[in-house]
Amino acid sequence: SVAPSVSRPITVTAAVGASAGGVAKTSGAAGAARPPTRSLASGAGGIGPASPADVWLSASPRDEGGAVVALRVGGDLRVGGVDAALAAEAPLVGVSAKANAGGGAKVVGAPAIVAHGTGSVVAWSEKDRGGSRIRIGSVTREGEVVARDLGPGAMPALVELPDGDLLVALVVTPEGALGEAGARRISVVRLATDLAPRGSVLVVSPEGASAMQPSLALRADGRGVVAFVAADDATTGRVLATPIACDPGL
């Protein structure tokens, strides 16, 4: 259902103006109105204070306006939504707590989220003494969570296919191979709307390069790319992209 091709190096260029404090200035028109900023969560909402280095955010737009948002603070993952005016629709749902009631695993890395139907689907990494695993869950606007384990992995990326299926890219590290050249590979798996895997897991990164940080993009016809960082050794790396094609309407 997903056909990979040969990975190709890509060059990313960008024209950036003067910057101060690590924030680049844009070339927008002088006097342009600043977009509104809204508070999605705060200590009063149960999130509590956290170091900026331990806060990760992912968002996905809705067709009807607004967006769904996944927020990781420390080892906790919460999901919510904003309307077209960027106002929070409801308190954030504690997805990791609902998915792992009584468990000791902690959420690590950045979550990935897409708007799906009237709710959302979020993928995340959990880590405990057994290593890192990928979890994926559907979240309704009413806060209902149905989660599934996708097996060992980290750094998930997520995109919705035109027919409503989902495509997940993740980093897989063979047991005992952490740190070895070529140990980290990028795999892709297609999921049905109920989050059950369709077909086999495909490896889309080349051998001999340690790959990480996958990103997915698809066109309406199901064709797209999986982009990722591939390190040839401890000091050099490349951005690679593997073209893929997904059969619609399976």
Number of separate helices: 1
Low-pLDDT sequence parts: 11-32, 42-50
Distance between the termini: 8 Å
The oligomeric state is single chain
Radius of gyration: 19 Å
In helices, the fraction of residues equals under 10%
The largest β sheet comes out as: 5 strands, antiparallel
Tell me, rounded to a whole number, the average pLDDT.
76
Please characterize this protein's 3D structure.
The protein is mainly beta and 250 residues long. The protein contains one helix and 19 strands. The protein has one helix spanning 95-99; strands spanning 2-4, 8-9, 19-20, 23-24, 55-61, 67-73, 76-82, 93-94, 106-116, 119-128, 131-139, 145-152, 154-160, 166-172, 185-191, 197-203, 210-218, 223-231, 237-246. Strands 1, 2, 17, 18 and 19 form a five-stranded antiparallel beta sheet that branches. The protein has a four-stranded antiparallel beta sheet with strand order 5-6-7-8. Strands 9-10-11-12 form a four-stranded antiparallel beta sheet. A hairpin with a 4-residue loop joins strand 17 (210-218) and strand 18 (223-231). The longest helix is centred in the middle third of the chain and has 5 residues, at 95-99. It is globular. Residues 11-32 and 42-50 have low confidence and may be disordered.
